[in-house]
Every structure is written in structure tokens, then in C-alpha cells.
Amino acid sequence: MTGVRKKGGWATEDWLQAIAAELEAASTTAAVEAVRVAWLGRRGRITEALRGLGALPVEARREAGQRLNRLREAAEAQIKARLQVLKAQEEAETLAAERLDMSWPGRRPPVGRLHPVTRVRRLVEDIFLRMGFAMVDGPEVESLWYNFEALNMPEHHPARDMQDSFFVNLPGMVLRTQTSPMQIRAMEAAGGRLPVRIIATGRVYRRDDDATHVPMFTQMEALVIDRGIGMADLKGTLLAMSRALFGPETAIRLRPSYFPFTEPSAEVDVTCAVCGGRGCRTCKDTGWLEILGAGMVHPVVLQNGGYDPEAVSGFAFGLGLERVAMIRYGFDDLRLLYQNDWRFLAQFGRGEDGM
Ligand SMILES: [Zn+2]
């Protein structure tokens, strides 16, 4: 202990130096408080010394008491001064740490995008609305009559196997395998009036799952019925649509095919948008990509819709929008569209396609 008692009194100078040194070393307000407690607290050295005065002779007590009280006042003043310095420092540090740097770039929150199929859907619908088509909508849980029978596919018709169906727990109902039931529903709604000129976009369901098929996909159906409609009208409409979708140089070709609800029927190809028709991996070097099935509405279907096949004719086609998205945006696995991988979907930025 720094000389508690020198000859004739208390070593107040030594104590004051010791306190000064401890305060100098105290770098936080908490450390200063510890110094204060050590000297001036209830069991502090100065407090204890004051308490011990009573044991001194009267003369010495008076003189020592004055010295100790001066020492206490000096210590208190030093502590106060040190605290002021440290508080100012700590305040400055807090301010520096919490300072707002206005020059930092803002954090950009992720912004939602339109799904590629939604983009294509809006594009295609816009093309047909401008050509004077009306947009109609129908149920995804459909009756066997609308989904098959009215479309010239009676029970046991082999074409039903071409579209493996999802049946539901309701007698005579199925998840629609195509948007073609909308042909019958649109004819019924028109009630014999002419022309019928509609598109119907929506989800359809088939038991299929590979790189070019998913169990749920999006189809757009188009139907035109009027007097004197022929294959040339079909071809002209498809060419206009294809050029609006894939560019003004796009050509189309129709290959004979079979569908129960059209006669004649055709599969429709467009020139490959990737290579411009020269041949590449996407089109397997053919220069062509198949995009849809089409044909003249079968007389049985016209009859089932309430129209006289002797008096009117029409064309219809069904377009897979996922397939259009693959061709338009240039990717080769259709399943990517439904895996919700943000890294894939984020590539379809805002602004393109005028959306
Ligand atoms: Zn190609």
C-alpha cells in the first residue's frame, strides 16, 4: 500500500498521484467508476482512512482530517474531469458508428416479373384481339361430352388414348385434356349466329412428363365459323400470327395429319427462329419447328355445336404456349417453366415484349 501514513500525517500526495495514474489508465467510464469505488466507495481507501481518524490523538486528527478531505475533493475533481473526457470520446465513437452515409447506393429489392408463359399468352391474345377475335373462358374440370364425345371422339375411340387423361371423383368428368371443348361451348353460346370468331386460353392436363411435356400446360384454342371459310383463311391467319410472334421473315408450312375433330387436319411448322431456317440443333437441322395442330372443323363437330355443315364451314387450331415460349426465348427443357427457379425466371426481364 502506498505509504498509508508518513511521519506526522497521511501520504496524500502519493495517493493523489496513484489516483491520477489509475484514471489515466482507465479507458472507459466503467473503468473510471471502478477507480472511484476503490478510493471513495463505502470500502474505498480514502473512506476507510476517514473512518480511522477517530483513533488518532485530537491534534493529529484535526490536521489529518483536513488533508484527507482535501484529498477526497481533489480525487472527486479528477474523476469528474476524466469522466467528462471519456464520455465525450464515447459519444463521438457512437456518432461515428451510427453515422448515415448518404452516398451509399440503395439496396434494390427484387422486383416481380411476368412468367414467360404469361408473357406469351398476352402476346398471342393481343395478336388475335387485334384481328377481331373474341376471348372466351371455360371450366378446367370438364364433362366427357365436351372434352371427347362432342369433338367426334366417342367412347373407345382410339384417339382418346392419344391424350392420357386425369379423371376426377365425379362421374363423367375429367380434367380437360385440351381447350377444344371451348369450340362446342362457343358454338352453343353463339346460338347459330355468324360469324363465330373466338380464342380460348387456359390450362389443360395430360399424364405426360418429359423434356417437352408437362402434366399441366397452357393451350390457346382458336375457332372461326362462317359461310365459305376455307383452308386459305386458316393458313393466312396462322401466317399472320407466326410473323407477329417470331418475326416478319417467318414462313409456315402445313403437313397433313389426323385429329378426330378436324377434316382435313394439319400439323403446322414455322421456320426455326434460332437459325432462320438454315438448320441447327434446336430444329434438328430441318429448319422447321412444329408449333400447333389445325384443320377444318369436322362436320360432326359443327353439328354438335348446332351448326349446319352444309351451310357453314370453319377452321380451328390449338397452340401450346409453353412450346411458343421455348421457341421464342430459346430454351430446350419445357419443365424449366414450372420449377420456380428464380435464376431461370429472372432472365425474362421487364420491358421486353412491350410488357
Ligand atoms: Zn434451327
Give the helix/strand layout.
Layout: E1 5-6, E2 9-10, H1 12-25, H2 29-40, H3 45-51, H4 58-97, H5 116-130, E3 134-136, E4 141-143, H6 144-147, E5 173-175, H7 181-190, E6 196-205, E7 216-226, H8 231-246, E8 252-259, E9 262-271, E10 288-297, H9 299-304, E11 313-320, H10 321-329, H11 342-345
Parallel strand pairs: 3-6
Antiparallel strand pairs: 1-2, 4-5, 6-7, 7-11, 8-9, 9-10, 10-11
Helix pairs in contact: 1-4, 2-4, 5-10
The structure holds zinc ion (ZN).
The site of zinc ion (ZN) has 8 residues, from loops.
Quick structural overview:
With 355 residues, the chain is α+β, with helices and mostly antiparallel strands. The chain has helices at 12-25, 29-40, 45-51, 58-97, 116-130, 144-147, 181-190, 231-246, 299-304, 321-329, 342-345, and strands at 5-6, 9-10, 134-136, 141-143, 173-175, 196-205, 216-226, 252-259, 262-271, 288-297, 313-320. It folds into 2 domains: 5-97; 116-354, BirA Bifunctional Protein, domain 2 (2-Layer Sandwich).
Would you kindly provide a written description of the structure presented here, covering whatever features stand out?
It is a single chain. The chain is of the alpha+beta class. It folds into two domains: 5-97; 116-354, Bira Bifunctional Protein, Domain 2 (BirA Bifunctional Protein, domain 2, 2-Layer Sandwich). It has eleven helices and eleven strands. It has helices at residues 12-25, 29-40, 45-51, 58-97, 116-130, 144-147, 181-190, 231-246, 299-304, 321-329, 342-345, and strands at residues 5-6, 9-10, 134-136, 141-143, 173-175, 196-205, 216-226, 252-259, 262-271, 288-297, 313-320. The strands form three sheets. It has a seven-stranded mixed beta sheet with strand order 3-6-7-11-10-9-8. A hairpin with a 2-residue loop joins strand 1 and strand 2. Helix 1 (12-25) runs parallel beside helix 4, helix 2 packs antiparallel against helix 4 and helix 5 (116-130) crosses helix 10 (321-329). The longest helix has 40 residues, at 58-97. The protein is rod-shaped, with a radius of gyration of 45 Å. The two termini are 84 Å apart. The model has no long low-confidence stretch (mean pLDDT 89). The structure holds zinc ion. Zinc ion (ZN) is lined by residues 272, 274-275, 279-280, 282-283, 287.
